[in-house]
Amino acid sequence: MEIEIKPKDQTKRHYPANKFMWAYLTALTLIALIFILSYVFAMNMLQQEATYSTMLKATNQFNLLSQNIAKTSLQIRLCTEQKNCEDQVSLLEYLVARWKQAFKELEKNNLLENPTSQTIQLVEKSRDYYYPMLKAAEKIISYRQRIYSFRETKTILRSSQVILINEKYLSQTLNCITETYYEEASANIARLKNWELGLLIFAILLLVLEAIFIFQPVVYQANLYFEYFKKANQAIAFEHEQLSEIYYQLKEKEAQTRRDAEIIAQNNQDLLSAQEELIAAQEELSKKNEHLQKALSELQNSKRLTESRFLDISLAEANKIMRWQNNETLESWCNRLLEYITPYVNGFQALIYILEEKTTLSVVGRYAVSQEMLLERGEIEIGETHVGQVAKSCKMIYFQNIEMLNYAVPNSNNGQNKNSQHILQNGIVIPWKTTQTATLEIMPTTLLVLPLMYYDNLVGVLEINALEPFSERNLELLKRLTEPIAANLHALNDQRHINQLFADSQIAGKKLRKTILRLQENEERFRKMVELTQEGLVFLQGYTIIDVNPALVKMMKYINAIELIGLNYIELIAPQYRFELEDRKIITTETELETVGLRKDGSTFPIELQVRKVTYKNEVITVISIHDITLRKQTEEELAEANRIASLVKVIEKKNKDITSSIEYAQRIQEAILPNTALLGKGFLEHFVFYKPKDIVSGDFYWYAEKNEHALIAAVDCTGHGVPGAFMSLIGYSQLNKIVIEQGIVEPHIVLSKLDEGVAEALNQKDNNSRTRDGMDIALCSLNIYEKKLSFAGAYRPMYLIREGEFIEFRADPFPIGGNFKYKKEKNFTPHTIYLLPRDTIYIFTDGFPDQFGGTENRKYMTKNFKNLLMRIQDYNMNEQKMLLEQEFVAWKGDYKQMDDILVIGLRF
């Protein structure tokens, strides 16, 4: 269907459209201009309102700070405690700083717009009150440390009064400024409302004109166009039917395409399902691997537990075997013990020797040893052969795979001696006996000789040999068995001696019973004779010596009694004690007296005198018994000294208890300042701290701090250990906090330089006459958390980095912090910087672990072994590494004492 359009009709239609279009554009332009003008004016008014709001806020803030300053100055004037006053002064200082800034903002905001003359005058007036208040507040702050002085108290009182007076007027002025700003803002809002009303009236008039001159003609022309469109729609309907047929054909093709797409989607879904099944299988395989790893770990733990249980069970069984049986001899006990122990540890032959008369070792137990060998080695002198050397040095001998440098194979046909000799590399010659079987001769290749010690005294020697080297657990079992064997051997040997003495006493009993009657008859005579032989007797006639017994001659160191006869008895007494005898008149009173005797050679000694009268041949003579009481005096002095020492011991024990309590309290203080290990994780995925002080308090300590984006950690070894080291650790801890937290220094080499200066100043080491050489070694790391950059510097203590199986050492500078004067002008610490990768592991530590003595030869653990240990434990997490380090340290130290404080820090990223 076609529609014809005449040219005349086309001209009539298009001409009104152009006219209406220009009219419509004109109306839109006017409306847009009105909108723009309204927007610009509103924004200008709102900007002015924002300016007034800012001015009001600044004025109110300045007014509030003024009131707080006045309130704080009043509290300072009324405070009664030093600490409270100092806190209030600090608060005043903070408020004054904010007050200054608020006043600057008030002046700045007043110049943003053209202020009124009234506002300018009010701001100028506020300065008259602001500066006196500021000067008074600063004067109060300047007297911070002398606030209790009478003079300063009067000054503070006057300053506080100045602040309160000026604050009152300043507050009134600020309120006037606020009211002025509020009036100007209200006037500005009224102007905005008037402008908005005028623009609204103009817009309404414009819309009325558009409705009359534009929309009415447009409606008429639109009706004409609607008729034209109706005819055009009929033609379009016919074309639409044709398009519908084409559409149905396209729809069928679309359905076929959709079915093909569904088939493809199903195939994709099958592929996704297969992929998910593959991922699930992979996850299941990972879980199985985890279970396998756990099972392997449990197997290793079970193995270690089995080893430990083996020793416990074996020792328990051996103790059962070592229980004494009724009527058991030393030899039978030793043989029974060896019959159990030797096969149990896969031994071949065994002998037990016992120490006789301190110079000879005798065999008291054997296992699988021929009679010929027993006769040959039944007794060995101390120092001879390997057994004698072990008895002499009290150290064990253990040889494996013994090489025979001089060994003659016995020949049973020619009757040669079947003895052989092993000459070991250290010169020890070991005579040995081969063991013959029906078809061959067996030569042991492993020798173990252990001293049997009981309370650090040698009791005997255990010799055991085998065809193969002993396993580690069997060797450890034999070492642990030496102490109970020695104890039982010592007890059995004592029992053997007691039995021998008992047998001898039974033989002598018969003789004793025969003589007991004769002894009883002569007991009194012998007792008197013993008394006479133990004391000196002086026989006097008047004061003159007429006779003495031999004991007195010997006591006084004279040659014979003739030298003493005729002397006055007083000459036997030391001159300074003779007046006491004369005063006491012991000859007539027959009393006892302790005094000091005088020998012929002039030496003196303590004696006890006893005087008695006796009748001899109808004549009364005086007898003086003189006892040498030197031993008694020495005993009394020793007893008095012992009592004095006992009292001193009690005093010392009390002081030790007090000192120990003080040190334990110091330990709690030291533990309190040490950082919590749980807080070390900022920037570190895993970490551990192996910390084991030698004494109650430690000279080693670890330190941790955070400053901005940096986390710093240090391992520090102070001079000495115990209490001296703990004092040094407090100095180091406080200096590190001061440098990093207060001063904000995070570069390790600069921190160490500052720390060196701080320690030298604290210990007065800058003085050339100072005798202190104390200092500390330190390894310090600083981690930039966001950049993953680690900085390191050290004084004698290095840092180890293990990255993907590679061991990297960052060496420290070869001088300490403080202590050594020769480095005063040379201490420039070297900075080291690395960028960390995932799974990088860092270790910092003190020298306690590598310097620990232990092992079988009591030697140092050494740094090389420590590095190897760190490499071996890399596959474990950090908690397991700490446990393995502790186990290695305990196993290496053994029964030896801990040499120094232990500190090892591990960090993993």
Topology summary:
Blueprint: H1 7-78, H2 82-110, H3 117-142, H4 150-321, H5 330-344, E1 349-356, E2 360-367, H6 371-376, E3 379-381, H7 385-393, E4 397-399, E5 419-423, E6 429-433, E7 435-436, E8 441-442, E9 446-454, E10 457-466, H8 472-534, E11 536-541, E12 544-548, H9 550-555, H10 578-584, H11 586-589, E13 592-598, E14 604-616, E15 619-628, H12 630-673, E16 686-692, E17 700-707, E18 710-718, H13 722-742, H14 748-762, E19 775-784, E20 789-795, E21 799-803, E22 806-810, E23 817-818, E24 832-835, E25 841-845, E26 853-854, E27 859-860, H15 863-872, H16 878-893, E28 902-908
Antiparallel strand pairs: 1-2, 1-10, 2-3, 4-9, 5-6, 7-8, 9-10, 11-12, 11-15, 13-14, 14-15, 16-28, 17-18, 18-19, 19-20, 19-23, 20-24, 21-22, 21-25, 25-28, 26-27
Structure description:
The strands form seven sheets. Strands 3-2-1-10-9-4 form a six-stranded antiparallel β-sheet. Strands 17, 18, 19, 20, 23 and 24 form a six-stranded antiparallel β-sheet that branches. It has a five-stranded antiparallel β-sheet with strand order 12-11-15-14-13. The model is unreliable at 1-14, 404-429, 436-440 and 525-533 (pLDDT under 50). The chain is built from 16 helices and 28 strands. With 909 residues, it is an alpha+beta fold.
